[in-house]
Amino acid sequence: MTQKKRSIFEEVDAAPAAPAARAAAPKGSLIARDDRGARRAIRAWLWLLFAMVVAMIVVGGLTRLTDSGLSITEWAPVTGAVPPMSLEAWETEFAKYQQIDEFKVENSDMTLTEFKAIYWWEWGHRQLGRTVGLVWAVGFLSFLAMKKIPAGWTGRLLLLGGLGGLQGAIGWWMVASGLVEGRTDVASYRLAVHLGLAFAILGLIAWYAFLLGRSAPSLMTARRGRDARLFSMSTGMMHLAFVQILLGAMVAGIDAGRSFTDWPLMAGQVFPMSAFDIDPFWRNFFENPALVQFIHRTVAYLLLAFGIVTWLKGRKSGNRATARAYDWMAVMLFGQVVLGIGTVLYAAQWHIAITHQLGAVALWVLILRARFLSQYPADQSVRGRA
């Protein structure tokens, strides 16, 4: 039998993309196992988790803005799911709160009714966290039991659950820092770790969902057309944006957003004179509102500048979907800068501050999407249609 001649432009390893090749694959091969995987169902489950984590971030922000985070003074992962059901139970919880310095110094005139308001915010935040864990566990165990998880994905999905459990522990570690004598709030650096891990989990969920949106052979083929330089630049954007998110948490942790409400100056100065008033010197980087807000503003300018450079490179991409992804990233970047300025000018009013936080989520995901399309360009016709 005469062997069919190959075109000099045909790649030898293009066979996996062919339906016939996939059908003929051995039963235990990676290709066959990948075809059996419920990629669409797992992707839908991941997007549900994504939406729930976003809700967690929003509720967590509101809990912080309403000074509700220390209203529950114990960590009870199981029994804590049941709120006080009687007047006696409410009075017991209120008595525990009255023992900490936040009550003694800032809320000594608080009534039981007012305590209930802040208690429900913190309880709701913790309950939502429990629900996220439950949704992850039910989904993961179901897909595992039905053997629907694609090859190589069990560890990735298990990692999400592990990080979720770690996030719960870090949440209590954060709260515990505000319960010690002499403190009326949580440590800002612990708040930054807590929020940073939330964004890391969010980023992993989004990245996994992007990957599951395409077949394994399609991803292998797309990777050959990756733009290495653009991928590297977007990776830099991702890292810088993550640093800015951590700094935003530091600002929120010490209410620095309400300390200087003018822009572009700070209290009429380019560099606030009180930036190094705290001793020892290193504490200023964590506890001085002037210095923390100045650093947050400075990194915002750096992120904007680098974002413009990355966008100018990305918009020249020969892949239409990739270029459009960088356009959207740039639009959200400018929008987030405007929201940040508005948050400062209006002294971090809760509705503006929460919108700014949601803007961070949107920008974070759009950076990741642009980065993904740099690594795995979407298929497009000769005319440039994706």
From TrEMBL:
Pathway: Porphyrin-containing compound metabolism; heme A biosynthesis; heme A from heme O: step 1/1. It comes from the Bacteria. Heme binds at residues 296, 356. GO terms for molecular function: heme A synthase activity. Its main location: membrane. Keywords: Cell membrane, Heme biosynthesis, Iron, Membrane, Metal-binding, Oxidoreductase, Transmembrane, Transmembrane helix. Its EC number is 1.17.99.9. It holds the Pfam family COX15-CtaA. Its cofactor is heme b. It is a multi-pass membrane protein. It is an enzyme of class 1 (oxidoreductase). It catalyses: Fe(II)-heme o + 2 A + H2O = Fe(II)-heme a + 2 AH2. The chain crosses the membrane at residues 44-63, 128-145, 157-175, 187-210, 230-254, 294-313, 325-348, 354-373. HAMAP family: HemeA_synth_type2 (MF_01665). This is Heme A synthase. It comes from Meridianimarinicoccus marinus. The gene is ctaA.
